[in-house]
TrEMBL record:
This is Synaptotagmin-7. PROSITE patterns: C2. It comes from Clupea harengus. Residues 127-247, 258-391 form the C2 domain. One of its GO terms (molecular function) is calcium-dependent phospholipid binding. Homodimer. Can also form heterodimers with SYT6, SYT9 and SYT10. Interacts with calmodulin (CALM1, CALM2 or CALM3). Interacts with CD63; required for localization to lysosomes. Interacts with APP.
Length: 395
């Protein structure tokens, strides 16, 4: 009997323990369910998934929006309008990126000149440097004195990454009588320090003239390339004393304007050590023939330092100012020569009975103008990808 009572006592203790544990587990479960009622993670773990695109609306928290939704809104607001197509719910932006990639033709990346893809809109104005000069009038001798002092931060016009600048001086509207400085070879910050006299000019006529300075890059075997220009009406200057000016150079009105644009792509293959230039098309080319049209073709020169290495050219498109070429030209460029390589692209007008005319040029390298340098850097940063960009043709 004693053993049976002990067994009954033991059984009663075990039953009480089991009851207490069960109660504790029940309370914990109820607490967890209440705590996780609005927790999406727990709902997913418990198999209570909401249907895609459907949000719970019963609780105040769902009406206010969760923290995760606020972050998604902030991230989407950080994107520029138009980057995310309508109907995409991808918080991290993967869908919009893939849609953008799929919208491009083939593997070609299209960039605008001088822009960092989406960071800017439209081309960035090219910096042409500036020039310092002085001007004054001698009433006793009826002479106008112009001093060309120096230039600063001029752009490189030669494939060697420098220029050979000189200055032409005019008193507009007279273009026949001009004066010129000496050429400063291989110098982007030239010091001329030259003085010029326009003798026997009555002061009344001087005030009717405009001082016009044109900075050019001297070329021994071809036409001099215009760098920039400055004009200042002399009736707005106190000529009784020598006045010194620093003026920013502007694009030459008779230089690059109206020559047209060329669309081309670059592709760098580091494994094969090649740069492939695809001449795609041109638009609004300058008419070089009497009939108001041109017969354009494109000539390409691969330059290493100052040496011409290889020449290629497209076919000629007859009587067309908006030709489509779509011709590719691979050039072998060793990796150690990339910083010393320039590709000169010249759009020509074919003439049967005379010398072919130059419509415009483009110098592609890591040290050319801003638009050209950007295209070169984009090519290097996207190996094995055709990176296309429009370029304005220059004289």
């Amino acid at each position: 009997m004693y053993l049976n009572r002990e067994e009954e006592s033991t059984k009663g203790s075990v039953s009480l323990s089991v009851f207490l544990v069960s109660m504790a587990v029940t309370v914990c479960a109820v607490w967890l369910v209440a705590l996780c009622g609005v927790c999406g993670w727990c709902q997913r773990k418990l198999g209570k998934r909401n249907k895609p695109g459907v949000e719970a609306v019963e609780t105040p928290d769902s009406l206010r929006g969760s923290r995760g939704e606020k972050k998604a809104i902030n991230r989407n607001m950080g994107n520029k309008p138009g980057n995310s197509p309508k109907g995409t719910n991808d918080v991290d932006g993967h869908s919009s990126v893939s849609d953008l990639a799929n919208s491009l033709t083939g593997d070609m990346v299209m960039l605008s000149p001088g822009s960092e893809e989406d960071d800017h809109e439209g081309p960035v104005n090219e910096k042409l440097g500036r020039i310092q000069f002085s001007v004054g009038y001698s009433f006793a001798e009826s002479n106008l004195t112009v001093k060309i002092l120096k230039g600063q931060d001029l752009p490189a016009k030669d494939f060697s990454g420098t220029s050979d600048p000189f200055v032409k001086i005019y008193l507009l509207p007279d273009k026949k009588n001009r004066l010129e400085t000496k050429v400063k070879h291989k110098n982007l910050n030239p010091h001329w320090n030259e003085t010029f006299l326009f003798e026997g000019f009555p002061f009344e006529k001087v005030r009717e003239r405009t001082l016009y300075l044109q900075v050019l890059d001297f070329d021994r075997f071809s036409r001099n390339d215009p760098i920039g220009e400055v004009s200042i009406p002399l009736n707005k200057v106190d000529l009784a004393h020598m006045q010194t000016f620093w003026k920013e150079l502007k694009p030459c009105s008779d230089g690059s304007a109206g020559r047209g644009d060329l669309l081309l792509s670059l592709c760098y293959n580091p494994t094969a050590n090649t740069i492939t230039v695809n001449i795609i098309k041109a638009r609004n080319l300058k008419a070089m023939d009497i009939g108001g049209t041109s017969d354009p073709y494109v000539k390409l020169w691969l330059m290493h330092k100052d040496k011409r290495v290889e020449k290629k050219k497209t076919v000629t498109i007859k009587r067309c100012l908006n030709p489509i070429f779509n011709e590719s030209f691979p050039f072998e460029v060793p990796a150690h020569m990339l910083r010393e390589t320039t590709i000169i692209i010249t759009v020509m007008d074919k003439d049967k009975f005379s010398r072919n005319d130059v419509i415009g040029k483009i110098y592609l390298s890591w040290k050319s103008g801003p638009a050209e340098v950007k295209h070169w850097k984009d090519m290097m940063s996207r190996p094995r990808t055709n990176v296309a960009q429009w370029h304005a043709l220059k004289a």
